[in-house]
Specification:
Aminopeptidase; 5 helices; seven-stranded mixed beta sheet; globular; 248 residues; alpha/beta
Length: 248
C-alpha cells in the first residue's frame, strides 16, 4: 500500500462533486508501532468502516472524485487541528495506544509526515479544481465500548457548523426517503468539523457532512444502498442551491 496519507479516486474537476473521507483507511505505515494488537485495527477506533467502499461506488456510478485518507486515525486523526491534543490520540474508546506516548519532537514529526501533506494536497485540489459541492463522509459505531448503554438509533447523521443550508436540505431529503436521520447526531458538527471548517467553510464551498451508522454499510448491499441514496441526495441539494451538478 502507498505510504502517502491520501489517495484520490477519479479526477477532481471544477464545479463537480468532491467526496472527502478523512478516516477511510486503517493503514498503519510500516515504521509506526502503535503498540496494540492487530485485531484492534479492524475496529471502529482505527477507521470509519464502510466509507471507502461507499465512496468507491459513488465514484464508479457518478461523475465525481474522492479524496480519501490513507492512514489510520490512530496514527494521526486527519479530522482535527494540528494543535489538538488528540490529533495523535493517546487512547480511543477506552483503549490506550502505547505507541502514541511520544515526545513533542516525535509528535511533531508524526504530524509533519502524515497530517500536513494530507491537508496540503487537499488545499491544492480545492484551489485548482474548486468543486460545486463537497460530500464529507464518515461513519459511526452503533454504540461505544466505553458507553454501551448509549445506543445510536440513527441510520445517518448530518453534521454542520456555520454553513447550515446544504445540510438542512439533505436532512429533508433523507427523512422523505424514510431514513432515520440524526440532525447534529450522534455528535455535533459545531464540535467535530475540523476538515470542513478549514477547507469548505473557510473557502465558501457548500458541503454536506454525513455520518453513516457502520452496521448499515459494513456489507455490500448496504454500501450499494447508501451510495445510491447519497448520489440522489447530492443532486437534490444541488437543485435546491442551484449548483448545477449532473443528474444521476
Amino acid at each position: 500500500m502507498s505510504e502517502l496519507p491520501f489517495r484520490i479516486l477519479g479526477q477532481p474537476e471544477r464545479n463537480r462533486l468532491l467526496i472527502i473521507g478523512d478516516h477511510a483507511s486503517n493503514h498503519v505505515p510500516h515504521d509506526v508501532d502503535l503498540g496494540i494488537a492487530a485485531p484492534e485495527l479492524r475496529r471502529h477506533i482505527a477507521w470509519d468502516i464502510g466509507v471507502a467502499e461507499v465512496a468507491e461506488l459513488i465514484v464508479s456510478h457518478y461523475p465525481c472524485a474522492a479524496f480519501l485518507g490513507n492512514v489510520s486515525r490512530l496514527v494521526t486523526d486527519l479530522n482535527r487541528y494540528p494543535t489538538d491534543t488528540d490529533v495523535v490520540p493517546a487512547q480511543s474508546d477506552g483503549l490506550v495506544i502505547p505507541g502514541n506516548d511520544l515526545s513533542p519532537e516525535k509528535r511533531d514529526e508524526r504530524i509533519w509526515r502524515h497530517f500536513t501533506p494530507y491537508h496540503d494536497r487537499l488545499s491544492s485540489i480545492l484551489q485548482e479544481q474548486r468543486p460545486a459541492l463537497i460530500l464529507s463522509l464518515h461513519s459511526f459505531t452503533p454504540s461505544l465500548a466505553s458507553r454501551p448503554e448509549e445506543l445510536r438509533p440513527w441510520e445517518v447523521g448530518v453534521l454542520y457548523n456555520e454553513t447550515e443550508l446544504p445540510s438542512k436540505h439533505a436532512i429533508a431529503f433523507l427523512e422523505a426517503a424514510g431514513i432515520c436521520v440524526g440532525d447534529q447526531l450522534p455528535y455535533s458538527g459545531k464540535v467535530l468539523n475540523a476538515t470542513m471548517n478549514r477547507h469548505a467553510e473557510a473557502n465558501g464551498i457548500p458541503y454536506i457532512g454525513i455520518e453513516l451508522r457502520q452496521n448499515e454499510v459494513n456489507h455490500p448491499s448496504g454500501q450499494e444502498r447508501f451510495a445510491r441514496v447519497l448520489i440522489e441526495m447530492c443532486h437534490y441539494v444541488s437543485e435546491k442551491l442551484g449548483l448545477g451538478l449532473q443528474k444521476p
